[in-house]
Amino acid sequence: GLESLRNAIVKFLEEEEVEGEVRIPFEKSKTIAAIYNMAKVLSKEYEDGMVVIHFQATPKNLSQIYAFTKG
After folding, report:
1. Helices 59-69 and 29-38 meet at what angle, rounded to 10?
2. CA torsion, ordered 37, 43, 48, 50, to nearest 10 deg
3. Distances (CA, A) of 29 to 32, 35, 50, 68
4. Could you tell me the strand order of the sheet in which 50-57 lies?
5. What is the C-alpha to C-alpha distance for residues 36 and 29, in angstroms, rounded to an integer?
6. 23 contacts 71 by C-beta, under 8 angstroms
7. Region for 55 from its dihedrals, namely left if φ exceeds 0, alpha if ψ lies in -120 to 50, beta otherwise
8. pLDDT tens string for the chain (71 positions)?
9. How far apart are CA 5 and CA 60, in angstroms?
10. Cα separation of 48 and 25, whole Å?
């Protein structure tokens, strides 16, 4: 019924997502918040004043995240 349809849709959407990782200076809280809005954060670690975020996102969002975290 509806539950199997829902599970199929969730599985399809998850298969369409890819994983990525970025290192962002801790002070860039707006960038960190944007990643939380655009992706599913799988883990977050702090090292040497940086936040290392491992996430899952659509390929489109992945490229956008990488674009605004460079530099």
Report:
1. 170
2. -10
3. 5, 10, 11, 13
4. 18-25, 50-57, 40-47
5. 11
6. no
7. beta
8. 889 988 888 777 766 889 999 999 999 999 999 999 999 999 999 999 999 999 999 988 999 999 988 85
9. 25
10. 9
